[in-house]
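Appendix C reproduces, verbatim, an entry submitted by the partner laboratory led by Prof. M.T., so that reviewers can inspect both the input and the predicted structure.
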Amino acid sequence: MDVTELSVPDAWVFTPRQHTDSRGTFLEWFRADALEKALGHPLGLAQGNHSISRAGTLRGVHYADVPPSQAKYVTCVSGRVLDCVIDIRVGSPTFGQWAAVQLDDVDRKGVYLAEGLGHAFIALTDGAQVSYLCSTPYTPGRERGINPLDPDLALPWPADLAPLLSDKDAAAPTLKEAEAAGLLPSYAACQAFYADLRSQAGFGQ
């Protein structure tokens, strides 16, 4: 796998090497050892999610309270989506910035985002199927959201697609509103949590 850290720290993109012959194609869409090398700790797996979306479906921006929050490894197994990782950690040098990666069934990239980062994607094709591995199970009381159409975030959603949001996502606060309400994770708390994960794995600080 080729591994590249995104412009938002603590998020990476993994591009698998595909092997094609007359029978079809084989690839390793997830490698725990490659991820652990990048993070400095293993990804604990507690839940696997799968969504099927019509073109224009916009899911996010989602995140969870830290600790323990929820790290994710995301890939598109069919169709094409634009996946965004947003730094919503108050005090981060890149607070409010985002990184976008096209995930599809051609390059078959995967995106990892650490605990405390925001996540959203829009389906670019009908029937786009996204699978993601999660470090903790879904816990409604800790789940949060930011409006993905927040003009201050200016996420790069395609102009030719009318975004289709859930009622919950459409009613989510803006980044500024969430910050003012004290709903966002702090960069310091996230870094301490990552350090604890590395320490538990024997990687130290």
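The mean pLDDT is 96. Additional entries are available on request from the coordinating office.
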